[in-house]
Amino acid sequence: IYTLFNSLPLFPANRTTEDSICCVSSTQGNSKDDVVTIDLKDLKTNSDAGSDKISSSENSDLEDITATPWIGGIAGNRPPTSSNTTASNNSANPVGSVCVSLLVVNTDPGQDKYPAPHSYPWMAALIRKDKGNKQFCGGSLVDDRHVLTAAHCLTVFRTATDLPKLEILLGAHHLGSSQRNWKTFKVSKIYKHAGYSDSKLTDDIALLRLSETVEFSDKIKPVCLNRGNVQEYDNGTAKATLAGWGQPCPKCSTSKVLRHSMMRLWTNEECQDKYNKVPVSIRHRVPKIQPTMVCAGSPGADACQGDSGGPLFTKVGGSYFQLGIVSWGIGCGEYPGVYSRVDNYVDWIDRNRNKN
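Structure tokens predicted for Peptidase S1 domain-containing protein (356 residues):
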């Protein structure tokens, strides 16, 4: 999550404009429907890669965090204690998910860029065990067995042999803490949307099935999915909260402590207008804003590399609803971040999390 500085480069100093919008190439299998599935059952020999310990070093290698086309982070602006979005009468979140409701959180955070520990109990940290146990993306717990994230975070996990390299942390706040008071889960299946495109960054959504059932607590609870519960949120004035462990500035390492920020939700039209003004040299490589995307960002408030896959959410009627999944962007704070629009994918999510 990006922190505002007086002068911001359009692109981080360690990146060229040519690779600023790129993401890892993906080789996905054929699929008869709209999902590509990677199943641990297909792995004949299951071996664990790496240790279970998270590195406490503050100096992470930015080249190891290659999963994200995002080149940006979350700023220290005040997260919302209320929302000017409108709640519909449909307040239920089906499929048996007991999502976070009537949770008192951050009643007066002021300008604190760090939320109180476990304020957002749905937050998930994705860990690369084969890269020194580095956190490389975020995600959100949506029920007692599944974590929602971005498809581009998982392009390096192509076969069942890759699954043991991926680990999920729930209930985490300070990733460098020696207390390690989080729960660790392995992944048994990956459901990636078959429509995901590296060039267009469409359908940037994936679902992770955990190897065991999650026991809910005050530190671990699922977020509600927006099923039309939150209306008129993309009218250009509404705001939402983003949380993650991404880079707080363009040249910084990813954050060991969870950060959060409030930001404005843009209309897709004004978001596209903004991206039409990128430098001519890279304009042909910038994806078009699609109806399946939603944009968000404010001065000094933006997602960044390492935040990808994490949730954009808002509180309405006493419940927290996820509106978006961090997908892509350019720079830190110069352009709005682009998110996969959750309410467009609830049928896809339900269909896949109800599979055996």
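DSSP finds three helices and 16 strands in the chain.
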